[in-house]
Amino acid sequence: GVGRGWEARAHPASLAAAASPPPPPPTRGVCGVAVSEPRAPDAGRMQVPPGNPLLLSLTLQELLARDAVQVELVPEKKGLFLKHVEYEVSSQRFKSCVYRRYNDFVVFHETLLHKFPYRMVPALPPKRMLGADREFIEARRRALKRFINLVARHPPFSEDGVLKLFLSFSGPDVQNKLRESAQRVGDEFMNCKLAARAKDFLPADIQTQFAMSRELIRNIYNSFHKLRDRAERMVSRAIDNAADLLIFGKELSALGSDTTPLPSWASLNSSTWGSLKQALKGLSVEFALLADKAAQQGKQEENDVVEKLNLFLDLLQSYKDLCERHEKGVLHRHQRALHTYSLMKRQVVSAAAQSREPESVEQLESRIVEQESVIQTMELRNYYSLYCLHQETQLVHAYLPLTSHILGAFVNSQVQGHKEMSKVWNDLQPKLRCLFVGPHGAPAPPRPPQDGPSAH
Predict the structure, then answer these.
(1) What is the rounded distance in angstroms from the CA atom of residue 246 to the CA atom of residue 248?
(2) Between 280 and which of 114, 256, 354, 445 could a Cys-Cys bridge form, CB atoms 3.0 to 4.6 Å apart?
(3) Residue 183: which domain range?
(4) Rounded CA separation 286/293 (Å)
(5) What is the reported pLDDT for 261?
(6) 131 C-beta neighbours (distance < 10 Å), count
(7) Considering only CA atoms, which of 232, 227, 235 is closest in space to residue 297?
(8) Is the pLDDT of residue 113 over 70?
């Protein structure tokens, strides 16, 4: 079930979220096992807290403090045909360290969708294709790390036993353990004591709020997507700049190390060329240092800026996916059930008008009663779906201050990077003095370029 803290906190209503009325029929588990519909939750299940459980007050700091999960690549093990990638997953909260394969993440993801169909379940990165290179494997590791951290900090998920199982179970076959946990219980709707009363907590204008919220989050997503793309380009330029600086320094050093003898007609300038070569030879050290500083800055911005932007984009995408699941799943099934009910009612009227046998009319009426029960369950699921959407919207807004973290990291990286590179450039300047020779062979400082055309 979901932890009480998620439902007990009260806070001024954040933007709501939902779509029109509707909810799904019997749920099927991860392994296709049918799950019976609502039963009265027992006393040990989640209790109804005081106040309005729809509202929550969670700060970004509180969310981030729930857990910090690291996902690192384990050196590849060669199979008969393919190299298998394995990940070391360590949780600060559970003080655990386990090994997981990509398929373990897939089963965990399916389990979450089964247990929490009305919550934001982040998407997984794509499965590796044949010939995947190191760049793809590293990108997928980063994406898996973002996925598991969003899940580990999500209030309902973080209180569910399936998360602890994934992060701390070190026995064999974690996939079967996850599937078993999904089969034993139904989804969140079936285990939440508030499910049947969700409608009572929803604001009257829930549809309007949902539409406004969805539009706002769509706009935020589009803007953050552009920010992420530009940040990636800046990181790429920093890495390219580092490579160019390194090559530039090596070429200067190669020029200074050239041993080709001067022709006789150039002997008048041999002393000048000799001193120039000597100065050029030593410059590669400073340029290598400049390259290292540029590469460090690019790497830091990739971790502190691009990755945080990607984390927020993953969260926003999961919200968009949730809205679609609500409309195409719950809403669509409810409308279909109502249509079926309408057809049944017509059949009863038609059967009565044609004076059919009482038994056939009774069978139709019995089916109508069953269909009414299905519709009632779907309506309850629809309102619970809207209830969860409202809470998930508040959760998205709790993550919005991440923007200031990202901007702060970007500005600090630029300031620090420019400061460190400026120091190296300043240290390099005195070494250039011997490159500027005066009329009598004496060193002369470089003159700044003149504005406008030079006088003749």
Answers:
(1) 5
(2) 256
(3) 60-191
(4) 11
(5) 79
(6) 6
(7) 235
(8) yes
Helix, coil or strand: residue 75: strand
Q: CA-CA distance, 31 to 114, in Å (whole number)?
A: 10
Copy the structure tokens of residue 114: 């089964």
Query: What are the structure tokens assigned to 390, written together?
Result: 């409202």
Q: Rank 2-6, 15-19, 300-304, 449-453 by mean pLDDT and report only the highest.
A: 300-304
Contact 324, 358 (CB under 8 A): no
Give the amino acid at 433.
R
Distance, CA of 269 to CA of 95 (rounded, Å):
71
The CA distance from 125 to 139, in Å, is 9
44-68 confidence digits (pLDDT tens) = 333 444 568 888 888 999 999 999 9
pLDDT for 440: 52
Residue 100 has what pLDDT? 96
State whether residue 454 is helix, strand or coil: coil
Q: Is the pLDDT of residue 95 over 90?
A: yes
Provide DSSP, 178-196.
HHHHHHHS--HHHH-TTGG
Q: What is the pLDDT of residues 153-176, one digit of tens each?
A: 999 999 999 999 999 999 889 999
What sign does the CA torsion over 451, 452, 453, 456 have?
negative
CATH number at residue 353: 1.20.1270.60
Contact 82, 76 (CB under 8 A): no
The pair of structure tokens assigned to 129 is 């294709």
Domain count within the chain: 2
Do 250 and 165 share a structural domain?
no
- CATH at residue 81: 3.30.1520.10
Percent with pLDDT over 90 in the chain: 49
With beta carbons less than 8 A apart as the criterion, state whether 398 and 63 touch: yes
- C-beta separation of 9 from 157 below 8 A: no
Q: Environment class of residue 53 by beta-carbon count within 10 Å: exposed (0-12), middle (13-18) or buried (19+)?
A: buried
369-381 pLDDT, tens digit each: 666 666 787 888 8
Query: In what helix (H) or strand (E) does residue 86 lie, and over which residues does it extend?
Result: strand 83-91
**Would you place residue 322 in the very low, low, confident or very high pLDDT band (cuts 50, 70, 90)?**
very high
Report angle CA 307, 313, 317 to the nearest 5 degrees. 145
Residue 203 lies in a domain: no
Tokens linked to 81: 């045909």
What residues have CB less than 8 Å from 165, skipping those under 6 apart? 174, 177, 178, 181
**What count of other Cβ atoms lies within 10 Å of the Cβ of residue 449?**
6
Beta carbons of 234 and 309 less than 8 angstroms apart = no
Q: What is the per-residue pLDDT for 57?
A: 84
Q: Using CA atoms, how far apart are residues 276 and 443, in angstroms rounded to an integer? A: 11
